[in-house]
Amino acid sequence: MLKTKNPLLLVPFKYGFIGAILIILGLLVLFFMGKHPLLLNPVLDVRIPIYGLIIFISAKVFKEQYNNGVMHFWQGMVIGMIAYLVMALVAGLFIYIMGEISSTGFLVDYINIATDQLVTNKDLFIETIGEKTYTDTLAQLPTTRSIHLAVDYLLKSMPIGLFLTIILSVLLRRK
Fold it and tell me: Fewest CB atoms within 10 A around its CB: which of 14, 55, 83, 138?
């Protein structure tokens, strides 16, 4: 475990792991309800409310319990970044493991559903992304591996976490 007594590190790691567990539970619930969690509308993404809640709680706990009610913007940014990186990395690792366990059908379902969505909405996709990108995507989809899903999830988590961190750091700074 982390061998430091610095609350600037301890608090976001602690709550980041709690948030990661919540995200994993959300992914599992969606998957076993028959909705592939990586192919949902971004508005329904479990990361947004959980990231916001965990970053807020981490910053608030640090500010109130460890820093005498004062938090500078940079401290909020450090706390938020650590919290969302922990959540994103742990959830990405979980997605990788789920994809590697063939009995779950996680990767196969992703490929099948994504292919169906591309074929069903062909005209819309060609209009939006162009025919070459569409055909390339359709051709590459069967070669998708678990690591691709995990890295994609991790990379898509970064802007969500950064945006929420900036907003919450501004709102919670100082007293």
Answer: 138
Please choose, from the candidates 92, 76, 88, the residue with its C-alpha nearest in 3D space to the C-alpha of residue 164: 76
Token pair 């890295």: residue = 151
Per the structure, the count of domains in the chain is: 1
Q: Report if residue 17 sits inside a domain.
A: yes
14-17's contacts with Cβ under 8 Å and 24+ in sequence apart are 14/58, 15/54, 15/57, 15/58, 15/61, 15/83, 16/54, 16/58, 16/82, 16/83, 16/84, 16/85, 16/86, 16/87, 16/90, 17/86, 17/90
**Domain, as residue range, for 51:** 8-102+147-172
Alpha-carbon distance of 167 to 175, in angstroms, equals: 16
pLDDT for 3 beyond 80: no
Give the C-alpha distances (Å, rounded to integers) separating 74 from 5, 55, 81, 175: 19, 14, 10, 14
